[in-house]
Specification:
With 106 residues, the protein is α+β, with helices and mostly antiparallel strands. The protein contains 4 helices and 4 strands.
Length: 106
């Protein structure tokens, strides 16, 4: 299954909700959501600085990851950015592909 990294930042209202519900409650909610889509959570961490939460998870396909991203972002309580995670083997396969590219002005 494809893996993804979420970087999330809570809005003011989202932070109020987090303080009210607690961190483990939000982790459990996110885990149930992802498992309900046929995926699994590998890691869930809170952080501080530019991002508030980091999640590594897998879903059956990219449309499930996109649906999750749209559902969370439309809430207005947290903004997430989702990054696909590639294995070393994915990079090895990509490195063996021939790509005809001409740089601008070349």
């Amino acid at each position: 299954m494809p893996r993804y990294l979420i970087e999330g930042s809570y809005t003011n209202d989202g932070t109020k909700g987090l303080l009210q519900e607690g961190g483990s409650s939000r982790r459990d909610t996110v885990t149930k959501l992802i498992e309900g889509m046929g995926g699994s959570v590998e890691a869930f961490y809170y952080t501080f600085g530019e991002r508030d939460v980091i999640v590594i998870y897998s879903t059956p396909d990219e449309t499930a990851a996109l649906a999750l991203s749209m559902a969370v972002n439309q809430s207005g309580k947290v903004r997430i950015t989702t990054h696909p995670l590639l294995t070393v083997e994915d990079v090895d396969r990509a490195a063996k592909k021939t790509v005809s590219y001409r740089a601008p002005g070349a």
